[in-house]
Amino acid sequence: MGCDVTNKSNMDIKELSPLIDDLVSSIQNTMKIKSLPALTLIDDPQNSEELLGKTAYYDPGNRVITIYVTNRHPKDIMRSLAHEMIHHSQNEKGEFDNISSVGEQGYA
Question: What whole-number distance in Å separates Cα of residue 2 and Cα of residue 89?
Answer without folding.
Answer: 15
